[in-house]
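Escalated from tier 1: nicotinamide-adenine-dinucleotide holo job.
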Amino acid sequence: MKIAIIGAGYVGTTTAAAFAHHGHEVFVADNNQEKIKAFQRLKVPFYEDGLEEALKEFIQKNLLSFTTDIKQIIQGCEVIFLAVGTPSLTTGEADLSYIKEAAKEIGRYMNDYKVIVIKSTVPVGTVNYVQEVIQDELKARKSNIPFDTVSNPEFLREGKAMEDAIDPERIVIGSDSERAETIMRTIYKEFRCPNIMCTSPKNAEMIKYASNSFLAAKISFMNELARLCDVLGVDVAEVSKGMGLDSRIGHQFLQAGIGYGGSCFPKDTKALAQIALQRNLSLGIVEAVCAVNETQAQWFLEKAENALGSFSGKQITVLGLTFKPDTDDIREASSLKIIDYLVKKKALISVFDPKGMEHVKKLFPGISYKTDPLQALTNADAAIIATEWKQFTELDWKSAKKVMAQPYIFDGRNSLDPEVMKNLGYVYMGVGRPP
Ligand code: NAD
Ligand code: UGA
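Tier 2 regenerated the structure:
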């Protein structure tokens, strides 16, 4: 099939690669010219393992192309996916202006029957809203071209985006139209997906917000519990291991740390809480999930500061800047809160991250960016691990100790073995682990 995708971000491009992988012809449009130029030069303007190679392959096989000509791809394809951003407004609500703009363009240019599929994460009711926006545009053109709108939320994880997009664990299709559902099933026919669920658009929209908020809740639950474990001398990592042995609980998303970041959990939890507040409902659990996350890094930093005596004038190394390993994405990363705090406390800051330094340089030009972990740790009074890159978990910590001024390790991701670190002579502090 010929598929159009509007929005050449993480989701739009990985979805495009997955569709091309499964034999479709995919056309991706973005209104950011620089981004499109980069893709046309076979360069991915962000880091995602395996994506650049896949895009090169499919572009060369003429299964994939990038353009700024949105009109052309709208007219040339029966199915149009919207993968534009839905960032937080200051109120916490999702900003639907990019969705609205793209929907208007579809209404303006569509020439025959279309299925418009919303892949972006959007509040319940957005599929109907997009339908109305398109309808208004058609009315203005005095046209009554038929079309359907569908919800098809995306569940990929950054860092594993390609494997998640090519072989997803679940595909959720929210459609009120049999014709559109048949087309959606045809698109996904070649995917090796064990669970294809067809439901209403509103249900599909809620499944996305509920999934992200539930995963965030698991993390915030463990982070809050870590604060109690800390006082009681209990190891939260052992607790999560023991809890996860119950298959009803499972091991995933129980790792306590300095909070979840990224472009989605913080925004989607806030948006869900806000959707409820607009209906005079308060989702106490979701609000608590957000509140724990807001304060987790600060709680950890205050403990670290007490252990060290003070951050003022001390040489502090932050290892890891991205919101998780295997990405260059620093959106809502806990490292930013850490650097901000250290700057206020007048620490001397050195940082290293395998992929995220360029982005952080723009926010904090005054700190010292190093080319490898050992260089970053040289003369450090303490190291704070903010992201569990394997460059840090597999570091030669014996050699690292020789270059550090003082042997303090504040492990914000519980990524190192406390016993090993203590045996090497470090003063090790994790999240919710006994000293
Ligand atoms: P992104 O910011 O990386 O990309 C969005 C792209 O849309 C940008 O390149 C922007 O220029 C483009 N755009 C905006 N308005 C446009 C318009 N009118 N016409 C053409 N292009 C336009 O965003 P993303 O991370 O890919 O996320 C997209 C959506 O998918 C969001 O709703 C997000 O919540 C959701 N999502 C993201 C992930 C993820 O891991 N990043 C996973 C699942 C769902
Ligand atoms: C998350 C979801 O996992 C995806 O299913 C979803 O599609 C996506 O959001 C989205 O909607 O954008 P992602 O943000 O890429 O994916 O990354 P995750 O692996 O979920 O990690 C999110 C954050 O939680 C990271 O900061 C990570 O460090 C933190 N985390 C994760 C923990 O603190 N503890 C854990 O046990 C797991």
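Residues 121, 154-158, 212, 215, 219, 253-255, 257, 260-262, 264-265, 323-324 surround uridine-5'-diphosphate-glucuronic acid (ligand 2) (CB under 6 Å).
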